[in-house]
Predict the structure.
Amino acid sequence: MSGRLDGKVALITGGASGIGRGTVERFVAEGARVVVADIQADLGKALADEIGPQTRFIETDVTLEDQVAAAVDLAVAEFGQLDIMFNNAGIIGAIGPIAQTPAEQFDRTVAVLLRSVFLGMKHSARVMIPRRSGVILSTASSAGILGGLGPHTYTACKHAVVGLTKSVSSELSHQGIRVNAIAPGNTVTPMTATATTGDATNLAEAYDHIKASASLGIAGEPSDIANAALYLASDEARYVTGHTLVVDSGQTVDGGKARFHGAEPALVREAGRRE
């Protein structure tokens, strides 16, 4: 690897699996030290143990402000600074027809997908502003670009992430802080395995499904999104802020499929767990 993040410290929420894990591994390979924040304690601890001293794990419910603040403070306490905040944690959330969506499932989805991004931006800015440098990234979605690609609440939140990215970038650019988002299309993770196969562990079938439906004829993998995050986090993107980088094999130019709207109402949580 080329050491594109040598000397940098990153905090990645939802870092224990899927896109988050892929980005943790990529950032460490490029020289960063990384705090992994995730509600999935067993997976997070195992990943930190596997990678070694370049990482720390902190169990984090990203909907709770004190826990997000604690994750930021851990990065500073353990590694001396915070250069990169990646607000990546997410769920599919409430699915089903709008007329049957329970309000409590809507609220939980908004908390995980939008409130968490606000909290991550708030607390990373708190420690970045005095240093007048830093990068804040957030995971949006192709569903944040085009309607019909995700459930209603998910789509609304991901559009909001794009808007919040633009708004916060306009403030923090004057503090030397860049704020950008990434909009992944279908990517092979436990969450998309749930969406495509009904089984969060069936990554092989999800891979085949995504590959078959992708305009480029290849399946998106966590490494593809990690590469986009690496670019935006690195000094190579020093002139880029307020931008949403779409990484979707052209999904947003193919039109929406609306596959979630006819499903039985449910809440799909972290790593594709359904309740």
In short: The two ends are 41 Å apart (CA to CA).
